[in-house]
Amino acid sequence: MARRTTRIRNERRAKIVVASLYASGGIAVLILLAVRESFPPIGLWLAFAAAFAFFDWRSVEVNDRLLMSPTVMVSLTAAVAFGPGSAALGVATMAALGAISARDVRERRIFQPVANFGQLVVTAAAMSLVLELFLI
Q: One digit per residue, pLDDT tens: the chain, 136 residues?
Protein backbone atom coordinates (compact mmCIF):
# COMPACT_ATOMS: atom_id res chain seq x y z
CA MET A 1 0.00 0.00 0.00
CA ALA A 2 2.81 2.43 0.88
CA ARG A 3 4.59 1.74 -2.43
CA ARG A 4 1.46 2.51 -4.40
CA THR A 5 0.89 5.76 -2.51
CA THR A 6 4.50 6.80 -3.05
CA ARG A 7 4.27 5.96 -6.76
CA ILE A 8 1.08 8.00 -7.11
CA ARG A 9 2.68 10.96 -5.33
CA ASN A 10 5.75 10.74 -7.57
CA GLU A 11 3.58 10.60 -10.70
CA ARG A 12 1.56 13.58 -9.51
CA ARG A 13 4.75 15.51 -8.73
CA ALA A 14 6.13 14.71 -12.20
CA LYS A 15 2.88 15.93 -13.80
CA ILE A 16 3.10 19.17 -11.83
CA VAL A 17 6.70 19.74 -12.95
CA VAL A 18 5.93 19.06 -16.62
CA ALA A 19 2.77 21.18 -16.62
CA SER A 20 4.62 24.01 -14.87
CA LEU A 21 7.44 23.95 -17.41
CA TYR A 22 5.04 24.02 -20.36
CA ALA A 23 2.92 26.78 -18.81
CA SER A 24 6.00 28.85 -17.98
CA GLY A 25 7.18 28.52 -21.56
CA GLY A 26 3.79 29.61 -22.87
CA ILE A 27 3.65 32.62 -20.56
CA ALA A 28 7.21 33.61 -21.49
CA VAL A 29 6.36 33.43 -25.20
CA LEU A 30 3.23 35.56 -24.72
CA ILE A 31 5.20 38.18 -22.77
CA LEU A 32 7.95 38.23 -25.40
CA LEU A 33 5.41 38.61 -28.20
CA ALA A 34 3.51 41.33 -26.32
CA VAL A 35 6.74 43.34 -26.12
CA ARG A 36 7.78 42.63 -29.72
CA GLU A 37 4.49 42.84 -31.63
CA SER A 38 1.27 44.81 -31.67
CA PHE A 39 -2.08 43.19 -31.03
CA PRO A 40 -4.26 42.80 -34.15
CA PRO A 41 -7.50 44.80 -34.48
CA ILE A 42 -9.79 43.55 -31.71
CA GLY A 43 -12.82 43.01 -33.97
CA LEU A 44 -10.84 40.89 -36.39
CA TRP A 45 -9.22 38.98 -33.53
CA LEU A 46 -12.60 38.31 -31.88
CA ALA A 47 -14.02 36.93 -35.13
CA PHE A 48 -11.15 34.48 -35.56
CA ALA A 49 -11.02 33.66 -31.84
CA ALA A 50 -14.73 32.80 -31.86
CA ALA A 51 -14.24 30.51 -34.87
CA PHE A 52 -11.18 28.95 -33.25
CA ALA A 53 -13.00 28.27 -29.97
CA PHE A 54 -16.10 26.97 -31.77
CA PHE A 55 -14.17 24.46 -33.88
CA ASP A 56 -11.86 23.49 -31.04
CA TRP A 57 -14.76 22.51 -28.78
CA ARG A 58 -16.36 20.53 -31.60
CA SER A 59 -13.39 18.42 -32.57
CA VAL A 60 -14.05 14.88 -33.78
CA GLU A 61 -12.41 11.75 -32.37
CA VAL A 62 -10.76 9.99 -35.30
CA ASN A 63 -9.45 6.98 -33.41
CA ASP A 64 -8.26 6.14 -29.90
CA ARG A 65 -7.97 9.60 -28.27
CA LEU A 66 -6.90 11.40 -31.47
CA LEU A 67 -9.05 14.47 -31.91
CA MET A 68 -9.14 16.46 -35.15
CA SER A 69 -10.52 19.92 -35.82
CA PRO A 70 -10.05 22.66 -38.42
CA THR A 71 -8.45 25.03 -35.89
CA VAL A 72 -5.11 24.90 -37.71
CA MET A 73 -6.75 26.35 -40.81
CA VAL A 74 -8.39 29.07 -38.72
CA SER A 75 -4.98 29.89 -37.20
CA LEU A 76 -3.24 30.05 -40.57
CA THR A 77 -5.96 32.22 -42.07
CA ALA A 78 -5.90 34.50 -39.03
CA ALA A 79 -2.11 34.87 -39.28
CA VAL A 80 -2.43 36.00 -42.89
CA ALA A 81 -5.30 38.36 -42.04
CA PHE A 82 -3.45 39.87 -39.05
CA GLY A 83 -0.35 40.46 -41.15
CA PRO A 84 3.29 40.93 -40.20
CA GLY A 85 3.91 42.49 -36.82
CA SER A 86 0.77 41.16 -35.16
CA ALA A 87 0.20 37.65 -36.50
CA ALA A 88 2.23 35.76 -33.89
CA LEU A 89 0.72 37.56 -30.90
CA GLY A 90 -2.83 37.29 -32.25
CA VAL A 91 -2.59 33.60 -33.11
CA ALA A 92 -0.76 32.71 -29.88
CA THR A 93 -3.48 34.33 -27.78
CA MET A 94 -6.11 32.51 -29.83
CA ALA A 95 -4.29 29.24 -29.22
CA ALA A 96 -4.42 29.90 -25.48
CA LEU A 97 -8.20 29.58 -25.80
CA GLY A 98 -7.81 26.03 -27.09
CA ALA A 99 -6.04 24.78 -23.99
CA ILE A 100 -9.25 23.76 -22.23
CA SER A 101 -11.52 21.19 -23.84
CA ALA A 102 -15.03 20.15 -22.92
CA ARG A 103 -13.66 16.84 -21.63
CA ASP A 104 -11.24 18.68 -19.32
CA VAL A 105 -14.16 20.58 -17.81
CA ARG A 106 -16.32 17.47 -17.42
CA GLU A 107 -13.54 15.43 -15.82
CA ARG A 108 -12.17 18.41 -13.82
CA ARG A 109 -8.66 17.87 -15.13
CA ILE A 110 -5.99 20.37 -14.12
CA PHE A 111 -2.62 19.19 -15.43
CA GLN A 112 -3.54 18.56 -19.05
CA PRO A 113 -5.06 22.01 -19.77
CA VAL A 114 -2.07 23.72 -18.14
CA ALA A 115 0.39 21.68 -20.21
CA ASN A 116 -1.74 22.13 -23.34
CA PHE A 117 -1.69 25.90 -22.82
CA GLY A 118 2.09 26.00 -23.00
CA GLN A 119 2.37 23.63 -25.94
CA LEU A 120 -0.32 25.36 -27.98
CA VAL A 121 1.01 28.87 -27.37
CA VAL A 122 4.60 27.96 -28.23
CA THR A 123 3.70 26.05 -31.40
CA ALA A 124 1.21 28.69 -32.57
CA ALA A 125 3.79 31.43 -32.04
CA ALA A 126 6.45 29.46 -33.91
CA MET A 127 4.08 28.76 -36.80
CA SER A 128 3.03 32.41 -36.99
CA LEU A 129 6.58 33.74 -36.83
CA VAL A 130 7.62 31.47 -39.70
CA LEU A 131 4.57 32.58 -41.68
CA GLU A 132 5.39 36.24 -40.95
CA LEU A 133 8.74 35.73 -42.68
CA PHE A 134 6.84 34.91 -45.88
CA LEU A 135 4.40 37.82 -45.46
CA ILE A 136 7.12 40.48 -45.39
A: 567 778 778 888 888 888 899 999 999 999 999 999 999 999 999 999 999 988 888 877 777 767 778 888 999 999 999 999 999 999 999 999 887 776 777 888 788 888 889 999 999 999 999 998 888 7
Which of 136, 28, 135 has its CA nearest to residue 92?
28
- Cα 3 to Cα 9, 12, 68, 107: the distances in Å are 10, 14, 38, 26
DSSP state of 8: H
CA–CA separation, 61 and 63 (whole Å):
6
- Euclidean distance between CA atoms 107 and 96, whole angstroms: 20
136: helix, strand or coil: coil
Dist CA 135 CA 81 (whole Å) = 10
Amino acid identity, residue 74? V
What is the distance between the alpha carbons of residues 36 and 14, in angstroms, rounded to a whole number? 33
Count the neighbouring beta carbons within 10 Å of the beta carbon of residue 123.
17
Residue 36 to residue 88: CA distance in whole angstroms: 10
